[in-house]
Amino acid sequence: MTLVAGAALVIASTPIWSDDEGGALDDAELSAAPTYTIGLQPPQDPGPFPGSVTPTTPTITIAGERDGESTFDVVRYDQVRPKSPGQLDFDHFHTGIEIQWWLKKWAYQRPDIVDLYIVGESFSGQPIYQVTITDKSTGTDTDKPAAFFEGNRHSGEISSAESSLWLANHLISRAGKDRQVDKLLDDKAVYIRPVNNPDGHDLYLYTAQTNRSSVRPTDNDGDGKLDEDPGEDLDGDGYLGQVRRYVGAGKGTHVIDDRDPAKIVMRSVGAGNGDYLMSSEGVDNDGDGRDNEDGVGGLDLHRNYPYNWHVMPGYDETGRNLTQTGAGEYPLSEPETRHVYTWLMSHTNIGAVNSMDTRVPMHLRGPSTCDPVECMYTDDRKLYEHFDRAGVGFTGYRYSGSVYIDYATRNGGDPEALFGHGPDFGYFQYGAVWYGDEIWNGGDFVDYDKDERFADWERSRWCVENRRNNCFLPWTKVQHPELGEVEIGGINPKFWAQNPAPDLIGEWAANQARFNLYLTESLPQVEISQVGVKPLRAGQSDGATHEITATVTNTGRIPTALEQAKEVKIVAPDTVAVEGARLVGDAPQFYLDGGRKQRVTLRVTKADSESVTVRAVSVRGGLDSAAARLK
């Protein structure tokens, strides 16, 4: 089917750049939005590098009917500009415009190893792009063990898109030059979706706005209105920072933190003890006494999976059951989640997944509602624990482990459940090794006071000691429409608090991608060897003329089916087939743990030719074959 790119979000789905950085599109250009077809895209030259990696229009409009603003000023951040247009670098954040150009360019230049897909549309009608990377000369992607990596499900967590893009570039640029990469692409397939949520990615990188996940209008404050109170960029610097208002000694809640050498960080000291009152940048649009509590969107695409999904607060008719904030109207109600689900369910050769986020940092996986010792198969849990340790070796993240135990209690307290969580669907229903890793540490580099917590003054001190001046926004005086004279500043919300500064993203993206490479290399892989043929005496009761023996080995680290995958029967047993002769009796069925072998015997009846092919067949371990002769 042929679709027209949605016009509600007038950005990357149309060529909105121009040779003139300040140029804008006219109505004729906007009405000439190109069509595209869902599915495999024919390789086409994308043309020259875009003249601008941000929209050239002064504003963009976000899809959806809401009670607040949908049109926002375009911000042209220095942090999204490539060092040299048309040369890939990881010292800046790639916008949707640039990412799409690179994906199309790779598919055009390397059709031998890259296929480009549009897997579906986002909430606003934007195409969602994905690449398949494998050596096509050694087999189709679905005949090989595969891994799936997804970035930017959550709007502002743009570091995950960078790691996805880094991995794609590594595989494509090293193919034919790196023996390890060539071996991986010979044997395996890698599916990479750099930006699963293009609407939110664009909102974050093209405007001052931020949001949690999807741009679908949502009532976050329970007042019956949708998105009616977003932040306003009052000082015009492209960020929604903090507001501090001096009210006099002993009349406020905050003071300037004297532990901060830059004297830029504020410290809460309680009502009646401070000099300043603090709030977020913007105004109280709905008059409820709170600022910016209901901005664009609010659903969480990582609470929208079908396993153990719960309704959102206010929708449980009993009024007494557990609910899940951000879960959506029903499981897979959001197109971005649904397109992941449908790809996975139609590509069950996928044995490892990482759907990445940002900000903890952590190698994060299920279970999300129970203690893994109690609710996971022991062998599966031990395999996950191996990957936890391996991941930390690649990245140095402070945390690794399950959502329910390790994530929920990392700052103390009791375990707390998350429902409808991707990693739980990934393990309990899809039966795969599934991570939802969290990239970047929020600037938490040194715990100066050794209290096992990180405060803004410690983040600021580290930046001062490392001669960085881009971690915090300087306090700037402005006239607030409601409060009078205030100052706006605080930690950089986009390129320090939630994601690193551009000069650091390459290292974080690469380290995470190297763990994902390790997951890919660990996939199950069946190999067939030691094939022997024995002629049988004539007159066998079952009609067999020959007996074939063969050894099937799983050379990977991950089993051809986790114990959980066997329980829910998401993965059919491994087997051995014979082509060119008739198999007598049932084909053997088995599963192989990592590094294990299975010796099989098959009785066959010779056909017209002496030549036969013996084939090992595994859903997640791929295919392998060997020739034999029936003498």
TrEMBL record:
It comes from the Bacteria. Keywords: Hydrolase, Metalloprotease, Protease, Zinc. Residues 218-228 have a biased composition (Basic and acidic residues). CDD domains: M14-like. It holds the Pfam family Peptidase_M14. Residues 92-450 form the Peptidase M14 domain. Residues 209-239 are annotated as: Disordered. Its cofactor is Zn(2+). Belongs to the peptidase M14 family. This is M14 family metallopeptidase. It comes from Plantactinospora solaniradicis. The lineage of its organism: Bacteria, Bacillati, Actinomycetota, Actinomycetes, Micromonosporales.
